[in-house]
UniProtKB/TrEMBL annotation:
Purpose of the protein: Participates actively in the response to hyperosmotic and heat shock by preventing the aggregation of stress-denatured proteins and by disaggregating proteins, also in an autonomous, DnaK-independent fashion. Unfolded proteins bind initially to DnaJ; upon interaction with the DnaJ-bound protein, DnaK hydrolyzes its bound ATP, resulting in the formation of a stable complex. GrpE releases ADP from DnaK; ATP binding to DnaK triggers the release of the substrate protein, thus completing the reaction cycle.
GO-annotated cellular components: cytoplasm
Protein residues bound to Zn(2+) 2: 163, 166, 189, 192
Protein's name according to its UniProt entry: Chaperone protein DnaJ
Main location group: cytoplasm
InterPro entries, per database record: DnaJ (IPR012724), DnaJ_C (IPR002939), DnaJ_domain (IPR001623), DnaJ_domain_CS (IPR018253), HSP40/DnaJ_pept-bd (IPR008971), HSP_DnaJ_Cys-rich_dom (IPR001305), HSP_DnaJ_Cys-rich_dom_sf (IPR036410), J_dom_sf (IPR036869)
Species in which this protein is naturally found: Candidatus Methanomassiliicoccus intestinalis
Length: 373
């Protein structure tokens, strides 16, 4: 553990805290099996150094002096006797060791934790317009709810007895063998799901499960600005908890349909707008449609080129849960007429000639006119 021979109990606790955090699987970057072995080693050291008798034997005889203090001659998790120190050392962080040590709190808290209902997920699709404006939707969620016949006990008439598997403790010990010896953990009893109670006679309506399947109808509100991947949490709308434990939550994942008339990147929108050659050449004031159904004015400067893009600040998508909007990017497309009158053709040819354009095809309309005369 890296402490001196004269280390005080507080110094030993401090060293254990540091090393245990270091080798915790959610923190360490090492191989899980290597981290498991190192965590076991520091726990063995703490078991020895935190016990005055074992520490004295270790100081006198080394490992040989303490091996006899362990059940099988070697340290296993069954030999760890300082579970109560875990919360003293780690506080709330100590709960992460529950899976290893079988929990550091009361059996009732472990039961409650083990019986929490599972979270559920549902996917919902909305249009881009609905994402812009926000929308309310009613969704149907198939889920389990407490059986009304037995009040969720699973027992006929609601009468229960001690679980025959765990003798009413709500717990079961699981022994796993690994290359590092035996690994023992305490888990909720599977038969009673950690409650310590079992049906005296199973309820016929729910087959002793204490719950039956129903369809819940829930209204959700999607705020303006939602995007694909937006996640909404509906607390308590997930699977029912067992024996009074809290229900799980429902997570609704939003998917926004693509709209061929619009492009989107986060809170910014993209729109192609057609204007005439004259508007592009001379400049003009145009009305650009917005996704919300309105229009916004935009100045097109003289000499605007095809595919030139203009930015309209604050005319894009609402920013979800924020008082603001993204921008609207307008890309100019030239609208080329497919049918021209004789006068329009004359004017275009005249324009081309004044512009110095010698293209032969521009002379065809003029020849055609002379023939007709």
């Amino acid at each position: 553990m890296g402490v001196t021979k004269t280390a005080t109990p507080d110094e030993i606790k401090k060293a254990y805290r540091k090393l245990a955090r270091q080798y915790h699987p959610d923190v360490t970057q090492e191989d899980p099996k290597v981290a498991e072995e190192k965590f076991k080693e520091v726990s063995e050291a703490y078991e020895v150094l935190a016990d005055e008798k074992k520490r004295q034997l270790y100081d006198q005889y080394g490992h040989a002096g303490v091996d006899s203090q362990f059940q099988n001659g070697n340290f296993t998790w069954n030999d760890f006797s300082h579970y109560g120190d875990i919360r003293d050392i780690f506080g709330d962080f100590g709960s992460i060791f529950d899976a290893i040590f079988g929990g550091g709190g009361s059996s009732s808290s472990r039961r409650q934790q083990s019986q929490a209902g599972r979270d559920m997920r549902m996917d919902i699709e909305i249009s881009l317009e609905e994402a812009y404006s926000g929308v309310k939707r009613k969704i149907s969620v198939p889920k389990f709810e407490a059986c009304t016949s037995c009040n969720g006990t699973g027992s006929k008439g609601g009468k229960q007895v001690n679980c025959p598997d765990c003798k009413g403790t709500g717990q079961a010990r699981v022994v796993q063998n690994s290359g590092f010896g035996q690994f023992v953990s305490v888990v909720p009893c599977r038969k009673c799901r950690g409650t310590g109670r079992a049906p005296g006679s199973e309820c016929e309506d729910c087959d002793g499960n204490g719950r039956t399947q129903h369809t819940a109808h829930i209204e959700i509100e999607i705020a303006p600005g939602a995007d694909t991947g937006t996640r909404l949490r509906v607390p308590g709308a997930g699977e029912m908890g067992h024996s009074g434990a809290r229900n799980g939550d429902l997570y609704v994942i939003v998917h926004v349909r693509e709209d061929p008339a619009w492009g989107r990147n986060g809170a910014d929108l993209y729109k192609d707008v057609e204007i005439s050659f004259a508007e592009a050449a001379l400049g003009s004031e145009i009305e650009v449609p917005t996704l919300g159904g309105g229009k916004v004015s935009m100045s097109v400067p003289a000499g605007t080129q095809p595919d030139q893009t203009f930015r309209l600040r604050g005319s894009g998508m609402p920013i979800m849960n924020y008082n603001g909007k993204g921008d609207l990017y307008v890309r100019i497309k030239l609208k080329v007429p497919q049918r021209l009158s004789a006068e329009q053709k004359d004017l275009l040819v005249k324009f081309a000639e004044l512009d110095g354009d010698k293209s032969q095809f521009l002379k065809f309309p003029k020849k055609d006119r002379k023939r007709k005369r």
